[in-house]
Every structure is written in structure tokens, then in C-alpha cells.
């Protein structure tokens, strides 16, 4: 089997075939290389590898064949030049910022991003002299106004968590490039199966592999995909020195997950669409946030940028926090957990879990009310899921 060139194949073919380099054993499925280091044939070869004069593995903090298979496969699917696996989604964001920014630099970020990312920007990067201004995701004037001569990076998630707002990536990529900045997009909610941010001018794509890439809630990991030049010199240089590297075992779980990502995302989208439409007809539900609904304010933009609405449905229930908690506790089939992207459906109360660190005012500003509930819709029968929600709503 020759190496397959992703340019000649559809993403679905890449998800199954890309990145594999068979060993002399001629295995069909990808092996796991559980080895911390690699041996050299002689001292001269060791010296050449360390000097970077000769390619090859040295130590699994730097490179590992199983991690490389995952990286090459995900890069092929995203249509990016190089992917670097990391120990978690958060370490992917940390590695991107620490490797590309320095003291005095400035980030403009959507305010509707993962809670730990806000914490990383506000509490960690700030200690090293990197500051962040947060703006509403879809207020393009606010993005433009927040940019200063020190701004190096624009950061967003689309759709956002948990209100599923959609950003116009092309517009923000143009704004970034006019100001010599990089646009970084966390593509966690859509995955390459539904959205390819590079097509819209994005410079760097981030993943929490923990979510849909694994898809069955087993391992924690992350990834950064971007142009060779940035990835080789800065990002890989930081990773091999600082060490937030992906474990080969986790890489194997993720690369097998990528093989089924396309069909899994289709099933997530289908079930989520049916549940969102059903929720919209319930009198106890005051609002449903789902890009697949015509009532979604950026439904058209979502259709332009994404090939499916995704598997996350948020909705507001009348009666605030008490009613939300009652519904959550009344379900049987939904796991009460903040994780998402699993074949098992999950249910979350953002105001008291993922967004509990925000003040009441900040929560009101970003639209996270006490009655808001987030579902990550899985692969159980959608009829059973609706029966379960119905019983919890009326019970
Ligand atoms: C979970 C998540 C992260 C962080 O990923 P970890 O693997 O938990 O570190 C980052 N961004 C988004 C959108 C997430 O949902």
C-alpha cells in the first residue's frame, strides 16, 4: 500500500485510509506503539537524529508513529498542512498561544467560548504579559474595534457553547489578515465531518479530541492543525520542549474514532434535528437554540459553512433553575455530565456547571439563564430519547 495523497480523495476515504504506514508485519489495522523511546543502529545515527540531519523517531515526547498516524489522518480530513497531537484540548490551546505569542501580545476572543479557555486567557496567559479582550461572537464591529497594534491572534468557536451562535469565519479571517493576525478556530462542535474552517480562511484549527473525535467518551486529547511553517518551527518546537504530548494509546483510540466520524456525525445531526423540532412544540419550552431550525438567527450562515447542524441542542425551560434541575433529574437516558460528543446522550445545566465561575451579570450578558439546558444528543433511539424528555417535562 502506497501512502495515499489526501488531495486525490474524499474526506470519508481519508478518514479510513490516511496516515497509515504499514510495518513489515503487514497489519491491516493500525498498531499501537507503546514505547517511550526509539533505538539507533549506531552512535552516528543517534547523533544525526538529534542534530535533525536525519528524520526518524527519538523519543515519544517528540514523535511517535501512532500519534503521527492520528495527526496525518486528521490533517488530511481538515485539509490542513500539519497536525500536532496534544494531551488535551486545553493543552492544544495553551500550546498554540505559548508557541506563537510573547509578552506584550494581545488576543481578541469571542466571549462565547469554553469556560477553561476563558480561564486560560484571563488567569494564566495574563501572568506572562499576554492580554485578552472578549467580544460578542457575531458583533463584527466589536471585533474590529478591539484590535490594537499588539493584537496577534483572533480566537473563536463556531457554533458556540452552549447557545450555538454561528460566526462568519470568512469575514473574521479577512479582518485578521488585514491586521496581520492569525484566526484560530476551535472546531470541536462540528469536527471536519461537518465544517472545514480552512475553506473560510482560518489559519489554525484546534480540537478537543476528547469529544466527537473519540466519540465514545474514553480518552482525553487534543490537536492543532495549521501551516507547515508555523507548526514545524514554533508549535512543534514548543511541544517537544514543554511536553504536553499525546499518549500513543489515546492516539490509537482517536485514529480509530476518525474512521467512523462521518457516519457518527450524521447520526448525531439526525437525532438532534428531530429532538430540536420536538422541543420547539413543547409549551414548557420557551426557546430552542439549534442551527438546524429555521428559527435560529444564523440558520442561513450555518447552512453555508456547515454540512450539518451538529449534535448539540440547547433550550430554555420556563420556571428557571428549579424547573431545569427538575427536568435534568427526571431523565433516565441522559447522563448528567458536562462532557459532550459521546454516543451516549448527555444533559448539562450550564449556569451551575460549565459556566458557574461567571458572575450573574456575566451570565446574563452571554445569555445563559437559570432555565437553560444543554443536550449532547447521542445514538440511542430518538423515540426513546423523546419519551424520556417528555416524561421528565411533564412529570
Ligand atoms: C472540551 C472542550 C475543550 C477542552 O478540551 P479538553 O480535551 O477537555 O481539554 C475546548 N474547547 C471546547 C469547545 C470544548 O468543548
Could you explain the architecture of this structure?
The chain is α/β, with parallel strands linked by helices. The protein folds into 2 domains: about 250 residues, Type I PLP-dependent aspartate aminotransferase-like (Major domain) (Aspartate Aminotransferase, domain 2); about 130 residues, Aspartate Aminotransferase, domain 1 (Alpha-Beta Complex), CATH 3.90.1150. Helix content is about 40%, strand content about 15%. Strands 1-7-6-5-4-2-3 form a 7-stranded mixed sheet, with helices on both faces. The protein has a 5-stranded mixed sheet with strand order 8-9-12-11-10. α8 links the parallel β5 and β6. α1 runs antiparallel to α3, α1 packs antiparallel against α10 and α3 runs parallel beside α10. The protein is globular, with a radius of gyration of 22 Å. Bound molecules: pyridoxal-5'-phosphate. Pyridoxal-5'-phosphate (PLP) binds next to α4.
> In angstroms, what is the radius of gyration?
22 Å
**CATH architecture grouping of the largest domain:** 3-Layer(aba) Sandwich
Q: How large is the share of residues in beta strands?
A: 5-15%
How would you state the average pLDDT, rounded? Answer: 96
Distance between the termini: 58 Å
Order of helices and strands: HHHEHEHEHEHEHEEHHHEHEHEEHEH
* Count of structural domains: 2
What is the highest CATH level, the class of the largest domain? Alpha Beta
List all distinct small molecules, including ions and cofactors, that are bound in this structure.
pyridoxal-5'-phosphate
Largest sheet: 7 strands, mixed
Per the CATH scheme, the topology name of the largest domain is Aspartate Aminotransferase, domain 2
* Low-confidence residue ranges: none
The CATH superfamily of the largest domain turns out to be Type I PLP-dependent aspartate aminotransferase-like (Major domain)
Strand order of the largest sheet: 1-7-6-5-4-2-3
The total count of strands amounts to 12
Amino acid at each position: 500500500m502506497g501512502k495515499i495523497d489526501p488531495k486525490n480523495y474524499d474526506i470519508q476515504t481519508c478518514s479510513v485510509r490516511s496516515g497509515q504506514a504499514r510495518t513489515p508485519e503487514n497489519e491491516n489495522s493500525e498498531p499501537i506503539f507503546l514505547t517511550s523511546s526509539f533505538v539507533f543502529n549506531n552512535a552516528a545515527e543517534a547523533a544525526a537524529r538529534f542534530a535533525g540531519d536525519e528524520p526518524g523517531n527519538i523519543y515519544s515526547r517528540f514523535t511517535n508513529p501512532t500519534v503521527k498516524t492520528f495527526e496525518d489522518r486528521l490533517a488530511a480530513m481538515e485539509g490542513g498542512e500539519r497536525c500536532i497531537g496534544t494531551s488535551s484540548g486545553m493543552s492544544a490551546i495553551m500550546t498554540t498561544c505559548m508557541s506563537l505569542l510573547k509578552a506584550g501580545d494581545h488576543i481578541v476572543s469571542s466571549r462565547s467560548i469554553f469556560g477553561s479557555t476563558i480561564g486560560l486567557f484571563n488567569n494564566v496567559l495574563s501572568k506572562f504579559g499576554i492580554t485578552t479582550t472578549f467580544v460578542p461572537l457575531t458583533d463584527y464591529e466589536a471585533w474590529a474595534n478591539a484590535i490594537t497594534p499588539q493584537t496577534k491572534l483572533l480566537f473563536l468557536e463556531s457554533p458556540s457553547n452552549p447557545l450555538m451562535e454561528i460566526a462568519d469565519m470568512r469575514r473574521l479571517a479577512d479582518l485578521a489578515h488585514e491586521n496581520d493576525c492569525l484566526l484560530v478556530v476551535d472546531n470541536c462542535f462540528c469536527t471536519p465531518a461537518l465544517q472545514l474552517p480552512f475553506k473560510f480562511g482560518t489559519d489554525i484549527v484546534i480540537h478537543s479530541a476528547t469529544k466527537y473525535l473519540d466519540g465514545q467518551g474514553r480518552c482525553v486529547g487534543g490537536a492543532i492543525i495549521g501551516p507547515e511553517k508555523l507548526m514545524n518551527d514554533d508549535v512543534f518546537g514548543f511541544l517537544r520542549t514543554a511536553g504536553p504530548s499525546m499518549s500513543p494509546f489515546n492516539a490509537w483510540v482517536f485514529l480509530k474514532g476518525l474512521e467512523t466520524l462521518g457516519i457518527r456525525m450524521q447520526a448525531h445531526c439526525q437525532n438532534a434535528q428531530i429532538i430540536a423540532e420536538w422541543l420547539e412544540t413543547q409549551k414548557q419550552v420557551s426557546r430552542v437554540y439549534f442551527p438546524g431550525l429555521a428559527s435560529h438567527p444564523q440558520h442561513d450562515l450555518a447552512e453555508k459553512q456547515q454540512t450539518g447542524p451538529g449534535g448539540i441542542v440547547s433550550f430554555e425551560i420556563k420556571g428557571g433553575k428549579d424547573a431545569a434541575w427538575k427536568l435534568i433529574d427526571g431523565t433516565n437516558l441522559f447522563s448528567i455530565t458536562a462532557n459532550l460528543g459521546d454516543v451516549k446522550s448527555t444533559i448539562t445545566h450550564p449556569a451551575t456547571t460549565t459556566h458557574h465561575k461567571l458572575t450573574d451579570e456575566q451570565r446574563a450578558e452571554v445569555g445563559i439563564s437559570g432555565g437553560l439546558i444543554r443536550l449532547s444528543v447521542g445514538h440511542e433511539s430518538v423515540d426513546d430519547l423523546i419519551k424520556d424528555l417528555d416524561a421528565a417535562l411533564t412529570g
